[in-house]
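pipeline stage [seq->struct] | target=RNA 2',3'-cyclic phosphodiesterase | organism=Streptomyces sp. gb1(2016) | residues=229
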Amino acid sequence: MPPPRTVGGGIHGVRAGPCRSPRTRSVGRPPACCTKSCVNEQTQPATVRVFIALAPPDHAKEELARELRAAQGAYPRMRWNRIEDWHITLAFLGELPVGTVPLLHGPLAALAADHRPPRLALRGSGVFDDRVLWSGIEGDVEELHLLAADVRSAVKACGVTFEERPLRPHLTLARARRGDLTSAAEIAEGFAGFSGLRWPAGRLHLVGSNAGRSRGPIHYRDIEAWPLG
């Protein structure tokens, strides 16, 4: 607006078998189920925040990153997104039960194979709600909208309900801190004329997010990714 491959062990993490009490136990020794695997099972989140997206290739992101370096130095209090997290959201699904996520894999893989990669470019800048800095998208925008519509239909056909938001293709780059209503607009004005080279969006990404789970930075990771076309 607002990446089959598995990263970091996948969405499921470590799955351990049932804990069994030992036949004998020495005084002071922890129970057998106080092992790392059992703790991981007990603390495994029941839900995961999920969205479906495209991602610019590294060379396109680096092109924009060079344009932003001066602003990053001049506005250090902005919450700048990591370059590896830049993405174009097609459908935000919100919190899903962990067991529901695998149901999406087959339909999304088939859908990706049926769509040619749209050719896109990063262009210009803008602000949402005075605080969110973004870069715009140009190129095969009509194809991008068709892909997003098919993605949303495939998700609903899997029985997954989510809030449908209008598609406004963009990359979210940074957020101003609460109460700062001027920095994002000043930065956007500085690279409003940016126009990047075109590139094919080669893969469809099913992404997990840690947003809302801690006070630390928001990070994203691919649950799965499938080639387009």
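stage status: PASS
auto-comment: The chain has one domain: 47-227. The chain is about 25% helix and 25% strand.
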